[in-house]
Amino acid sequence: MRNNKLGKAKRSALLVFLLVAGLGGGPLSGTWVSAGELGAEPVPKGAQKDIQKDAQTEANERPQRLAVIIDDFGNKMGGTEEMLRLPVKLTVAVMPFLPTTREDATRAHEMGHDVLVHLPMEPKRGRPEWLGPGAILSGMSDEEVRLKVEQAIENVPFAKGINNHMGSKITGDQRIMSVILDVCRERGLFFVDSRTNYRSVAGELSQNKGLPNLENDIFLDDVHSTRHISGQLKKAEELLEKKRACIAIGHVGVGGKLTAQTIKQHIPRLQARGVKFIGISELAHEQVSPGSGPGHPFTLP
């Protein structure tokens, strides 16, 4: 009995020492020590199952949430006004260095939408003129990539994150994506992978750097027809049944008005069945805690 009491006393003293060292900013500052390492009793298996069950129940009780990102703002593209005036929250992805870049980003922010930098990146195939100014190219040095990303962020006001315009070649390049994500982390931004490359390294790198792992689930208007866009929205609904959250991407441009019109037609029906339209930042915040991840503390705005 005496040895047991001494053991408990030693464990209590060790716990106090660790807490004091952490608060004092010493070598253990910011270090978490598990209960098992202090000799405390582990959580019973039954309790662990209850905790997991409660977490799953909470996830299932969340409303189904649809984050719609609309790409290619910044150049007075078709459907710009129609998209901005949709009666739900959107995420507006604005290309940098174009005639209405700042105007579109500012208006989107003022109307309550999330804003992203729609960063041009080199594709595996495609015409160079489709990229637009300020593109990230595979032949650039780390310093050139960093400068381009920083300039793009400065050019798009109110941006909460970045997503890629084209970029199938760059999102598969670990060196370049690492630089892009380092800048995101330093600026308190996140990266949304548009998934133009199914072998993208963006998700894994984001997790390794303590950033949210966000990626497109479905393109709404890769075919410009009401029937196709409606069908894609239906697929998004099916994904919501499984995942409770879905990221979908549409576009302004040639078919922008049609995309906006079709989304608008489906909004009442989606809302009636409990779907909530959200900005992409809501999903980002769910994955990040203040100071999480490696390196210096990272906090989303």
How far apart lie the N and C ends?
A: 54 Å
Low-confidence stretches: 1-6, 12-43, 53-57, 290-297
Q: What does the average pLDDT come to? A: 84
Proportion of residues in helical segments: 40-55%
Broad shape: globular
- Sheet-strand content, in percent, reads 15-25%
The ordered string of helix (H) and strand (E) elements is HHEHEHEHEHEHEEHEHEH
- What is the radius of gyration? 23 Å
* Helix/strand structural class: alpha/beta
Multimerization state: single chain
| Biggest beta-sheet profile | 9 strands, parallel
Number of helices: 10
Count of individual beta strands? 9
Verbal overview:
The chain has 10 helices and 9 strands. It is α/β, with parallel strands linked by helices. Helix 3 (80-84) links the parallel strand 1 (64-73) and strand 2 (91-94). Helix 5 crosses helix 6 and helix 8 packs across helix 9 (256-272). The chain is globular, with a radius of gyration of 23 Å. The model is unreliable at 1-6, 12-43, 53-57 and 290-297 (pLDDT under 50).
Annotation keywords:
301 residues, alpha/beta, 10 helices, 9 strands, 44% helix
Q: Strands, helices and their partners?
A:
Elements: H1 2-23, H2 45-61, E1 64-73, H3 80-84, E2 91-94, H4 101-110, E3 114-121, H5 142-155, E4 161-166, H6 174-187, E5 190-193, H7 202-208, E6 214-215, E7 218-219, H8 226-243, E8 245-251, H9 256-272, E9 275-278, H10 280-287
Parallel strand pairs: 1-2, 1-8, 1-9, 2-3, 3-4, 4-5, 5-6, 7-8
